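Problem: given the chain below (390 residues), write out its structure.
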Amino acid sequence: MATPLIPAVTDPSYRVGPPPSRPASVTLAGRPLGIVGSARIYVCGITPYDVTHLGHAATFVWADLLASALGSTGVTPEVCRNVTDVDDVLSAAARERGRHFDELAVTQEAVFEQSMRALRVATPAAQPRARHHVQAVQQLAQGLLDAGAAYEHDGTVWFRGAGVAAAAGLDEAAARALLEAYADPTDAPGQQHPLDVAVWRPSVDDAPAWASPWGWGRPGWHAECAAMAVDVLGPSVDVLVGGEDLRFPHHAYQEAMAEAVTGVRPFSRAQLHVGTVRTGGEKMAKSTGNLVLVETVLADHEPSVLRLLLLDRAVGEPWDYDASLLEGAAERLRLLYAAAGRPGGGGDQAGLAVARVRDGLDVTGAVDLALEVGGECARRLISLLRLGSA
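Solution.
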């Protein structure tokens, strides 16, 4: 048989140069994400009123770091961060201030975007707003009805949620308490099970309202995120991101609705829940009057100091904010800059701190390592964490 003119690709003589290094990856909860090409990241965003406090900021800075870490591996992060601008608490806040709900939402979004730019959070690829996805929520509701996963009673489309708590590892009593804490009714007229939640609900008085097959109404909160995520990113996402307080009921129901209507499981391949920021032992919230706003902190401190304060800890752990912590973050940042100015830290050491971040988003361990190695290792970490001086 004649010898082929072109060597086969399996022939060692056909290879030129050393084999490529093993592609880097990001690990969450001890498991590599296994991303090919692009990473679909859905971040549960703000309800736009009384923004932007440090609890908000922590979630979005961590989501930004996740995207940055994925980007450092050659993956293209596709971040979708929604705005929940159809919500009863937003409507109540607007009513108190004598404004229309969407007018208040737009002005508060502008404040929020200013805070995000100051903290060097990259603009997401998509920023869907609930009021622009009402039709998608109605499609979700009809799809759930068609699948037998929902039922309608007197203008409310209820999602059958009896199994959601068990899937989240909660008993019914604990689940009911959490639902009620987020104003989800558990004993409403026509509600067949206390864990059922509204996909679509009637609007009365001055509540926002849209025409629907079930009468004038508005979307339910969990349904809004389910519909926006599926509409923008498709039937599944690689990472679902939000505050720890969103684990249940919000993320649990968002996932259950998406899975029920699309048949694709799991809806999220991984989740990232950011620890609650507290003051005086209580979660930051308007109701407790303990909000610390980003703009207040940035009046006296560089954005990189606040960004490092938010990141220099275990991602899922709750923590108490105190103004004195900013001085410690400022000193740690100064030391990191000084370490970056030292010679060395290149070669095999250059990527050590970045690799530490990729492994479970261990920022504290990465900073400690960069301070020790210095040089190029520290400079790469500063770039990854987006801590460069303005």
